[in-house]
Write a structure and sequence with these properties.
Oligomer: single chain
Number of strands: 13
Helix content: 10-25%
Largest sheet: 6 strands, mixed
Distance between the termini: 41 Å
Shape: globular
């Protein structure tokens, strides 16, 4: 490996570590934002400013796709993926297309009357889980960030 390549890799690692530490320091004041981007028929209702119910989206087989401009949950807030009217869904993919990272310091929950549901949350800008973050998902939960994986996921979602 050449010197320039090694320096680039060290810089990338240092930037990632610094960015993660900076994000953790800023994470204490999580602003409630679960905002659909309008591309996949995602509907977000908010009976209170910190609690969100997510419905609709775009279905393909047993998969359901949601797209958000922003996805952050404050302390004692919640984001509930309500699948009561879509009982055949077993996997949810939620992507964030905006420029902010996701701060999760509340509850992420899936509701489905018939089967466990797995949730994949994708944000290329990062996802930070605070000390009060909680999950109530009947299946698996995967949080992914970073551009190579995200580009592949977006290409797949856009083929719907």
């Amino acid at each position: 490996m050449g010197t320039l390549e090694a320096d680039s890799q060290r810089w990338a690692v240092r930037s990632t570590v610094f960015g993660s530490l900076f994000g953790l320091l800023v994470c204490n004041a999580v602003q409630a934002q679960v905002i659909p981007d309008g591309s996949l028929n995602t509907i977000v209702t908010s009976p209170t400013s910190d609690n969100f119910t997510i419905t609709n989206g775009s279905a393909s087989g047993s998969n359901l796709f949601h797209s958000f401009t922003s996805f952050s949950i404050p302390t004692n807030g919640s984001a509930v993926f309500d699948l009561v009217n879509t009982p055949n869904v077993s996997t949810i993919f939620g992507r964030v297309t905006g420029s902010n990272l996701s701060n999760i310091d509340g509850l992420i929950k899936t509701v489905n009357n018939s089967n466990p549901v797995s949730l994949f949350l994708l944000n290329p800008n990062g996802i930070i889980f605070g000390s009060k973050a909680r999950l109530n998902v009947g299946g698996s939960f995967v949080a992914k960030f970073g551009y190579p994986f995200y580009r592949q996921a977006i290409a797949t979602i856009n083929q719907l």
